[in-house]
Amino acid sequence: MNRIFIALVTCLTLIALCWPYSAKADNEEQGKGKVSKIMQEKLKSSQKILEAIALADYDKIGRSAAELIQLTKMEEWYVLKTPRYETHSNEFVRASELVIQKAKAKNLDGVTLAYFELTMSCVRCHQYVREVRDASLPSGLVVAKRPGFRIGLSHNVKYHFLFVRRLTSNHQLVVGQ
Predict the structure, then answer these.
(1) Considering Cα of 12, then 14, then 16, then 18, what sign does the dihedral take?
(2) What phi and psi, each to the nearest 5 degrees, are found at residue 48?
C-alpha cells in the first residue's frame, strides 16, 4: 500500500513538473507559425538578392533588400525582447540599407560584400536565438524533439521533458527515476 502511494505521488509530481513546460511548448508552436512565415519570406528575398547579384539587376537588388527591411517592421520579427537581439536586428537593417545604397551606386562588388554582411548578420542572430532558447531550459531538463516519443504522460504533448541523470560516453541519455 505504501509503495503504491509513493509511486502515485511520484507520477503526479512528474506530471505537475512537466505540464507547464508542455503548455509553453504548445504556445510557442503557435507563435512559431508566424515567425516561420516571416523567416521563409526573408529567405525568399535573400535568394532574390543573390539571383539579382548574379544578373547584375540593381533594381531587383534594391527592391528585395527593401522587402527585408519591411519584414523587420512586423511585430512577429521580434522573437526575443533583449538588447542583444535588438542589436542583431539593427545590424540586419543596416546591412540591408547598405545593399540598397550599393545597388543605387551600381557597385556590384559593394553589393556583394554588403550581401555577405547581411548573411552574416542572419547567421549571428540565429546563433544567438538558439543559445538563448537552449539556455532557457531549467537545469537537469532536456527536450526530446522526436515526434511520437512517449513516456506515458500525454499523447498530445509534442515535446517531453526528461530529467537527465547523466550522459554516457557515446552521448546517450540515461533518464533519472
Answers:
(1) negative
(2) -65, -40
Tell me the pTM: 0.60
Q: DSSP label at 138?
A: P
CATH classification code of 2-175: 1.20.120.10
Give strand ranges (E) for the chain.
141-144, 160-167, 173-175
Cα–Cα distance measured from residue 99 to residue 88, given in angstroms and rounded to the nearest whole number: 17
Q: What is the pLDDT of residues 1-14, one digit of tens each?
A: 566 645 544 544 54
* Domain residue limits, the chain: 2-175
> What are the grid coordinates assigned to 14, written together?
512528474
89 and 125 Cβ atoms separated by less than 8 Å: yes
Buried b (16+ CB within 10 A) or exposed e, 25-38: beeeeeeeeebeeb
Total length of the chain: 177
pLDDT along the chain (177 residues), means of 10: 55 52 51 83 95 96 96 88 93 97 97 96 93 70 44 38 42 44
